[in-house]
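[SOLVED] Predicted holo structure with pyridoxal-5'-phosphate

Edit: marking solved, answer below. Original request kept for reference. I posted the sequence and ligand SMILES and asked for the 3D complex as structure tokens.
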Amino acid sequence: MVISTTETDSREILSSTFASRYVRAAIPRFKMPDNSMPKEAAYQVINDELMLDGNPRLNLASFVTTWMEPECDKLVMASINKNYVDMDEYPVTTELQNRCVNMIAHLFNTPVADDKTAVGVGTVGSSEAIMLAGLAFKRKWQQKRKEQGKPYDKPNIVTGANVQVCWEKFARYFEVELKEVKLEEGYYVMNPVKAVELVDENTICVAAILGSTLTGEFEDVKLLHDLLTKKNEETGWDTPIHVDAASGGFIAPFLYPDLEWDFRLPLVKSINVSGHKYGLVYAGVGWVVWRTKDDLPDELVFHINYLGSDQPTFTLNFSKGSSQIIAQYYQFIRLGFEGYKNIMENCMGNARALREGLEKTGRFEILSKDVGVPLVAFSLKDSSAHTVFEISEGLRKFGWIVPAYTMPANAENVAVLRVVVREDFSRSLVERLISHIEEVLKEIESLPSRVSTKTAHVIPMVNETQGDKPLKKSVRETQEEVTRHWKRFVKGRRAGAC
Ligand SMILES: Cc1ncc(COP(=O)(O)O)c(C=O)c1O
């Protein structure tokens, strides 16, 4: 690497191009450079490389907040050097976190009295929150089994196959078997009846999702609760429920206040929510709240005594930034219930407009529901020649990042596109996106199918057979083949579902 810093370089500097004023060779990728460089150069080099990242505002793959008010940005920058864990030094920040926990717990109808502290903690995101909630369930179940003199080495957890990857991580990292209810074509969330059938004496909890990552649909927590209550009565077990409200936790209280999914249901013992999704804070904050103190085993809690008062902590990591907690508190007091409600209504309105625009093309089937998280998941009605993966690719040209993916077991043959409608995805951007999708459709249809004719040959009949051997592929088999082809094609390039 050559850095132009001396007088003798001045002639060269004048005749050099913009970037080579600073650096003429690639920065080493595997070892730290031997020498320092001027701060302006370091800034320029990094800033230039980052220009090749996508634009977060056009990233429709993610639920995570990409815009906050400048006043909130200012608070974030002012606290960027505060380590959250230094509670002695930053007691006000700790107090703001506790206020956030209380506000969230009350939003979720905690049984804790209005003037009492709720039980919960700020985390890096819903993933950490879920690890903590899962650990609490595992420990509670083990304690009970030990007391009963029963084996406690085979815990399991029941979820839908649509769970986000963090549940699989929890299961693997903390050695809990994941018992997944398979999806069905046309039904893309956990079926409560089947979930309760999977529950046995080793089930530490059933996890329901309020706002499926794949389609935004709310699972029927009330039905799950009623069925599980009945099973508990019949068996003498007391299997609890956790609600993964990563996205829906900041939607349902404002848009569907009568929907019973939270602590109003007695078996719901803990709930997680991502502050950085519809909590409207930049990436790096989640929350988990427990129904009561008894639902969080005390041996998992570390007690820190700061300024004379007990501060219980239960997190996986030690140090972390304070900015996100402060930003969350800003959003709560700045917007209030009224402000959140307005924003969520607006997001829903934009999701509806997008949905209608897509329906008008006549080409898409909408998989997301009217009630749920403001997102639109849609598949092509006919994917015999072209697929949603090509549409996703085509939209990249305009700067849009719209993920295409296949559904989990047993609906793998269904491939969808998903657009998450965040606060900063305005109506005019919705209209632009629709017109770009129309353009992409026209463009790909003018091209020959990129799927081999063999693969693309869809036969609209279920298996014709000769003896017991199928003669032709069924629609489903063909779709699966087309999808496999495209998954290979876009592997490593498409955004995953977050
Ligand atoms: C339902 C659900 N649970 C958990 C997560 C993980 O959340 P986080 O990214 O906050 O860790 C997500 C992320 O999208 C999600 O959709």
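OP edit: The chain has three domains: 7-53, 74-333, 363-490. Thanks to everyone who chimed in.
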